[in-house]
Amino acid sequence: MARGGEDEFVVEWLRALPKNAPRAGVVAGAAAGDDCAILRVPGDRAHWRLLKTDGVIEGVHFRAGTAPERVGWKALCRPLSDFAAMGGGRPEHALISLAWNPRAAGADYVRGIYAGLGKAARAFRVAIVGGETAATPGPLSMSVFLSGTILRKHCVRRGGGRAGDLLYVTGRLGGSFASERHLDFRPRLAEARWLTAHFPLHALMDLSDGLGADLPRLARRSGGGLGWRLDRAALPCAPGCDATAALNDGEDYELLFALAPRHAQTLERSWRRRFPKIPLTRIGELTAPGEGDDLDARGFDHFCARKA
Amino acid sequence: MARGGEDEFVVEWLRALPKNAPRAGVVAGAAAGDDCAILRVPGDRAHWRLLKTDGVIEGVHFRAGTAPERVGWKALCRPLSDFAAMGGGRPEHALISLAWNPRAAGADYVRGIYAGLGKAARAFRVAIVGGETAATPGPLSMSVFLSGTILRKHCVRRGGGRAGDLLYVTGRLGGSFASERHLDFRPRLAEARWLTAHFPLHALMDLSDGLGADLPRLARRSGGGLGWRLDRAALPCAPGCDATAALNDGEDYELLFALAPRHAQTLERSWRRRFPKIPLTRIGELTAPGEGDDLDARGFDHFCARKA
Fold this sequence. Notes:
2 copies of one chain form a homodimer. By secondary structure, the first copy, chain A, is α+β, with helices and mostly antiparallel strands. In chain A, 27% of the residues lie in helices and 26% in strands. Chain A has a domain at 158-287: PurM-like C-terminal domain (Phosphoribosyl-aminoimidazole Synthetase, Chain A, domain 2), CATH 3.90.650. The first copy, chain A, has helices at 6-15, 68-85, 107-123, 189-198, 211-221, 243-248, 264-274, and strands at 26-28, 37-41, 44-57, 90-100, 127-135, 141-151, 166-170, 203-206, 227-230, 255-259, 280-287. Mean pLDDT of chain A is 89; it is low at 1-5 and 296-308. Chains A and B meet through helix 1, strand 3, strand 4, helix 3 and strand 5 of A and helix 1, strand 3, strand 4, helix 3 and strand 5 of B.
């Protein structure tokens, strides 16, 4: 699955950067392919620190004219979803970097973005401790930086999947842009915390680019490059979507994880009790390298031309 | 000095955001006006954690066509200068958020930016542990997030100045854009560390928007709003610059600090021994509220229209 996408660029360039500064305590930089950078916490063996930056750009991640509160909500919820993807990390502090064109958007619009950020910060108990604004002649863009912690024993990375593991996804997939779900989604922090507290997940990530792009990433990182088998008929499609949309639309912000089959029954039963309104769907399995399906569909990639 | 600039917008909007999440341990958010957010470190009373985000945008902070290594260097050195401005904080981890238009700049240009980031990271011992790239139809922009620590006893904020304190600046001011010094400057981390280890500075900041804008900020935060007296003839002007340029050009990334007069002689003598190549200049003093000069010149402000 050689894809000339965002992933590969970032990984290549980040690999060349120094990660071994004194006291850096890096367990895994982002070039390792996880959703967050993982750092040791001096004097605290029970926790790791997670760091993440993620952004939204007008015309790419939201349409010009989108209600500003929803833009702010989405901007903070994207890195929160990455914290969920590590196993339910606990976000603590956020910083906001915002660039806007005062000739294109009034101060009220930007104030609305901050209101949306505040709403998400209260919902997920994040302290927004800093920020920076700058004028730009270009489209409005924001970067959100998130710092927090996770219990080491609950931290699950992308690359731990094993051949024979069952693959699960939360929620429903597809149509996130058309339905505007991508503006209002709730990151699966509580769900990820519950999962990692009760089940020994082997691999975990969030679905931001579409299952069709993200599942190969998880498999590729696992066990030296595993294969997978996907039950397309089982895919939990959002209303009005077919399997192709569920694979390709992207921005689902649901969880994808791999688990040994012996836990399947307990997992499915306890999930239904704990989260009765959120589907949990077994969509396939990881296979030995070279076996399994190939995905003909390409997932969402920010480097592909597409209209937001 | 009511200025409708970047400062006031950010402060107003950030004030409305939640800062009291559980375990947030916020000593000061950025809305307090300091160069970095200050956080308590659980289980470590000797240190505080510093967080900062800062960015560069093509056409605002650098010209299109600038050598990419210099863009990367500047992008990391800007928040490093904010760490210096807190008293010489120790940077540990950085994350890079980069948005670029693949149709306008080739991959080699972006790779060059990462090379410049790497050079600055090695020079100042920062571990770059993560990043994100996105395509944008707009100008190239980057945000750099920096996390690190500082000895509490060495942390100096903007607002501690007292009437009668002497004001000092490091280096030479003015002409940073014309001379392209803004692309190659070295953040004053070592100098700030030495200063705070040896002298009880009352207030400290870095000069990013020009002394004409930054000095009023320091005075306004200090002692409920102090005045100042400025010795324009004493200003350490960069080659080819007059006092007006030194006040207004901005992007000097030098240190401005306030110190009780009784330390002046020792400071000036020891500084010359320790940093013989870097000027340290007494430029005036803080006065009681309502006394002193008024600056007729406006410093650099990113919300003012100007050509980079």
